[in-house]
Write a structure and sequence with these properties.
Chain lengths: 197, 197
Amino acid sequence: MTDGRTRRREDTRQRLFVAAVDLIAEQGFSATTVDDIAARAGVAKGTVYYNFESKTVLFEELLRHGIGLLTAEFRAAVDGLPPREALAALVRAELDYIRRYRAFAQLLLSEMWRTNREWQQTLRLLRGEAIEVIAETVRAGVASGDLPADLDVRTASSALFGVGLVVAVDWLVFQPDRPIADVQDALLGIVRRVAQT
Amino acid sequence: MTDGRTRRREDTRQRLFVAAVDLIAEQGFSATTVDDIAARAGVAKGTVYYNFESKTVLFEELLRHGIGLLTAEFRAAVDGLPPREALAALVRAELDYIRRYRAFAQLLLSEMWRTNREWQQTLRLLRGEAIEVIAETVRAGVASGDLPADLDVRTASSALFGVGLVVAVDWLVFQPDRPIADVQDALLGIVRRVAQT
DNA sequence: GTTTTTATACTGACCAGTCAGTTTAGAAGG
DNA sequence: CCTTCTAAACTGACTGGTCAGTATAAAAAC
């Protein structure tokens, strides 16, 4: 099953993902060339096209991979918890994820609210999946009376997602000297206050 | 001073700004061509280069113009108000600005947290100027005891700026059907709760 | 008569994608 | 074991198109 061949190939794809995510986070999708990605990954240009149909497809698979991971961690974080604790756990999971996959978070923040790009549809779909996990928690909280009844589920969920992203990335980019634990405390404080019935 | 010639030229520059901001908000800086900008502005390509040194300079002047406007509105909004009202006024001013210059806000959100771009330095500086207005208000609030003493001024200010941006643009892009007044209420509610001593 | 804009053509760099050829992992045969 | 053999994985020079920026002559605006 995992013979040397597939392991080697998987390793190459992984290296290409890492290279692509770093470069695209810094420069954006269009400004990043396939030659750059290949060079950074220590691989020939042809290898990129052997492993991915096109630059766009590489990026789409990267998005799928990254957001898929985030969604899975969201799911694991809320598992079995009552609404209010689940909400705090979601914030912690998001921050933790951003800390580990800093470049990907930066990339998401930059590309999330674009329109008129080829991969827009993919990104929109994936965003929906991640936010749905948050929405389920918020919905349960509103239903059980743990959260304010007038809370708009859809809005609150996407706001929560976006706020975590922007606050964390802002901290990482403009105040990297500060420990990320502070962001977490600040965000948890905000969410706790907002969630008061 | 403002003879017909300079007025005409100013008008051309304005049209180019509008065209550029719309296209760059949709596609990003790199994916937007000078030919596109000229066509959208209804102007010959040569005119772009008659009025701006280069594509990058056009973009930098656009950033300066847009953020300068925002900063001025921040200044006007807080003028003479006590800290807590000033904070609410800032949120209102930011939202109001985003509603009016939607494309520019989208562009800012996409380009603000990038690194390694030529105009990065310019953007960083301008961002600092806008946030400084918020910071002054927060600082005054902390000094007068209107805001929690443990509030980190720098963090709170940039978080406030970023949160307004992301929540508003998210709303505009993903839930444009909803009235923007709702965003304002939601944000004011959050800020009010967080600002509680 | 000076400034600004137009229309069009051009250049040179850059870049996504291709392809003929090389290397490598590991199966098959001895 | 050690040698073919084969298909998968990888290479890098090359191509065709795109695009920032330039050039210029003539027209329009003031």
